[in-house]
Amino acid sequence: MLRQESSRGNQIIQVKVNMAWPMLPREVILHTRAVDSIDEQGMFALRARSETTEENPVIPEPDDNVVRMDMEHDFIFQTCPLDHPCLLASKNNCQDPMILFTAKTRVNAHVKYVPLRLINFVTRNFIGRLWASNLKVAEEIRDGKRPLHQEAIASKRDLYDWVENRIAVMTKKANNK
Fold first, then answer.
1. Could you tell me the sign of the dihedral formed by the alpha carbons of 60, 9, 142, 86, in that order?
2. CA–CA separation, 153 vs 13, rounded Å?
């Protein structure tokens, strides 16, 4: 749920997740920002950080029956270096500049009675499956198989257009090198 939007790349978003019994539902409130550093560092990023009521008065106190999670998430887009190990190992002979996409996440779900080893094991297995699932959804959106997703994207065209524009600027700069 969008709680506040002051610009294309500056939003406060609330996400609620029901957990399996006996855990209480979880919630995270993220302040997202777009960071454009193409001219200085050849990259741009979308950053999301959890915030509290003390840090931002727009954010309400959590409900008594919900656990507020802490989260940091970065999406980083940059021109892929020609010596990147994944590019060198790729069978793709594309001559066009490639975009290197990096996602970094840190989450504290405040789960106190589950052993850390189990959390790490589940997380490591979950991340790969989540990535594959997200890629499948993206391909289905591209292929017109997810009309509800396409409608949601159309309603936020400003942000998606900005990302596409920044990628076009990066690839143009890479072509001119």
1. negative
2. 16
The span from the CA of 46 to the CA of 75, in Å, is: 5
Strand bridging mode 10-17 / 2-7? antiparallel
Q: Which residue has the tokens 């610009």?
A: 7
Distance CA 42, CA 79 (A): 7
| pLDDT computed for residue 140 by the predictor | 95
Integer Cα distance of 42 and 36 in angstroms: 9
CA 19 to chain centre: 21
Rounded to the nearest 10°, the torsion over CA 118, 120, 125, 127 is: 140
Least confident of 24-38, 110-124, 133-147: 110-124
Strands 67-68 and 26-37, bridge-based pairing: parallel
Question: Which two three-digit tokens encode residue 137?
Answer: 């959804």
Answer whether 0.85 is exceeded by the pTM: no
Element (H, E) at 56: none
